[in-house]
Structure formats: structure tokens, C-alpha cells
Amino acid sequence: VGGGDAAVIRRASAALPGASLGSFRLPDDLAFAVARGEAGCIWSTSGSRSVDWVMSCGALPLGHAHPEVVAAIEAQARRGASFYQLNEQAIELAEALVRIVPCAEMVKLCGSGSEAMFYALRIARAATGRDVVLKFAGSYLGAHDYGLHDLDQDGAVQTQSAGIPAGVTRDVLVAPFNDLKVAARLVREHGRRLAAIAVEPVQRAIEPAPGFLEGLRDLCDQSGAILVFDEVVTGSRLALGGAQEHYGVLPDLCALGKGLGGGLPLGAVAGRADLLELTAPRAIDTPTPNASTGAAPGPVYMSGSLNGNPLSCAAALATLRVLERDGGVVHLASVGRALRRGLESVAAELGVPLRMIGPDAFPEPVIGLGSATVTDLASYERRDQAASVAFGLELIRRGVFVFPGFKLYPATTHSNDDVDETIMAARGALTAIAG
Ligand SMILES: Cc1ncc(COP(=O)(O)O)c(C=O)c1O
Question: What digits encode the pLDDT tens for the residues 282-297?
Fold first, then answer.
């Protein structure tokens, strides 16, 4: 990665804003485009190999180009890529999710994690007849208007993107993560207007304090709000059935995405049948003289030309099959544990206060926190952000692809060599930033 990629980035920036596909953009001297990926590694268009801990932002639990996922996609592609109609792959995937995800009595498929959270909140508003959503400071619930809100310096709710209507902001409440007292106060004050509490059960890399998720469950039961778990990261990563299986707390609805599709675009809302049934359309009527005819969506509109796309569902089924068969979730965590141990030990040796926070399935290297407990955004922000990001950039310079200052995503196909190579690069990166 590096200088040889400059021409590609120049070319990309003419047609793609910021030569980026989203919100992630590397500095010019490190920017590159990917030519291909295999197992735990990617190769840039100029031929440089990097060990990949970004893994499509966590969407590849089996790593790149897993043979069984590739075979499933190829087989389905030959039978047709999309139908806008019920298909075998979609039915089989919905059945698998009902079996695997504890809250899932029914499932509705969509295109991404963001869409899944957007629809879950729409269903919650429809079911309760209320508008307000309570979320937590520092969480990311996807790219939709409700998700992109946080607290400003003065504790007021603010948007995190231009272009979000003020009316949406009026219906968003934000509490500190792991603070049941504040959440309970907000529920007391706004309970009659509260449609949903929406939470990442592990927020970024911050784990829930004992009793926190249970407390949110109680607050929803008392207020009639819908508990929505954003399991886009935790689903089939923390446990096959997600954080709800791991912590034993049942939401009313959950959003799935990322790893669900095994690298293909896919999201799902799963949960209580009475809630999911709100999205069920009415059958098209046979025309009769005085009756209205035509397609009739359910009370909650949830539809898309590519929903239940058989290619994505085939990739998802192959991914779930491999994860289930090979104890993949345990394997992911063991890769993460090896990485945690290696990075922490090389940092200790060099006298750099680096620590890996979060679960082994998606740990995050942070510098400068000492042994302080991280429970919420405020305690997380005490890290040395500049050093944490600089460490990530230095890793990229040394052939280890990470999202600087962000969590790492182990895959089952990361090899011991990938981990060793990362630890070796970390030695150089930590030496560089310490100097
Ligand atoms: C917790 C969480 N929810 C939702 C999303 C949105 O998913 P997607 O980017 O697939 O739309 C993300 C993506 O990073 C996420 O981390």
C-alpha cells in the first residue's frame, strides 16, 4: 500500500466524492483501492498485500472469497440473481434466523443494517402510535435520519449530518450508555410518547454493565415502548444468535446486517410476530365493480426491489452453515484473543499504554486509558485519540489494514501468520508513534 496507488486514487476522485465509498477516507499517502481479497488478506491495485482487520466493516466473518460462499453465490447466479418474488433462498434464510435468533418469531429481509434499523424503528412507531426514540450517546445505529443523533458539549441532542429534518431531531432522546438512571428519567418524562429504546447491546466496543440490558427491558415493559437491539455487529459474531443469546435478554425487535450477508448486501428485521405482521401486504384483489384493487402494502411499508435477494440469501445461508458447523463464533473470538494478547504484550514491552477493549469477537485497540473502566462515551473519550488513530495509520503503512481508531474484525480464516504479522507490524507502529 502506498505511493503506487496515487494514480488510482486520482482517477477515483474524479467520479467518486473524496475517492471514498462512504465516510471512510485514508490520507492521500496511504489511500489505495482493493483489487482482490482472499481469506485474511487483501491486495491493492498496485499489488501490495495487507492483512485485513476491516473485513468490510465486519461483514465478512469467514474472510474474503470463502470457497463455500463463492460456490453458493455462483450456483445461485446461474439460477437467477433477483426476482422481486418469494424465493427458496429467502424462505430458507428466514427459517434459519427464526431458529437461531432468540427473539425471532418472524423475519423481514431488506438490504442493509441501516435499512433494518430504519424499518425496526418505523415498525415500533406504528405499533405504539408514538414517535419518540431513545438512543445512547456514542452509538451508531446506521445511516438513517433517526440514527444520526448524539449529544453536543452542553448535553443537547444534535444531528451528526447536515440535511436531517428538525422534526426528526425533536423525536430523538439520547442518554449515556450504561446509565439506567438517566434512561429511567427520560422514560418517566417522555414515556407516553416513547415508541422505542434502540440500543447496540455492545455499544461500539463498550460492553453492557450487568443489569443494563435487563433494565432497558423493564423500562420498555413499564412504558409500552418497543425494545430494539441493533445486532448489526453482534449478530452471528458475539454468539450465533447475537447479543440477545449471549446476555440472555430478549428484545422485541432486532436489526441484523453486516456478517449476515457474508459479504453481500443484506439486512433483516427479526422479532415478535405481531410486530413483523404489520409489514405483511394484503393480497392483490380480483377486480370487482366497486372495490379498490391493486397492491396494498401492510400498515407499515417495508419493501424493496432487491429484498430477499437470492444471491445475498445464498451467501448468508452458506455463511451461517459454515459458522454453525465449524464453531465459527468461538473461532472468531479465539483469533481476537490472540490478537489482543499479542498487541497488549508488545505494547507493554515498549512501554506504550495500549489496551484492547471490547469483546474478543471485535476488540478495539485504545491508547492512554490505563486500566480505567470504559462504560460510556465519556469514559471512552478519555483515551488518547490522536495516538490511537496514529497507531492505526502506522499499521496501514506496514501492511496491516485497519480503520484507525476503531475496532478490529477477526475472521475465521485469519491465520496464525496473519496475527503474527500484525503483531510484528504493531511493534514498528508503536515504536514510530512513541518516537
Ligand atoms: C451497530 C451498527 N448498526 C447499524 C450499522 C449500519 O449498517 P450498514 O452500514 O450495513 O448499513 C452499522 C454499521 O457500521 C453498525 O455498526
Answer: 888 766 666 665 667 7
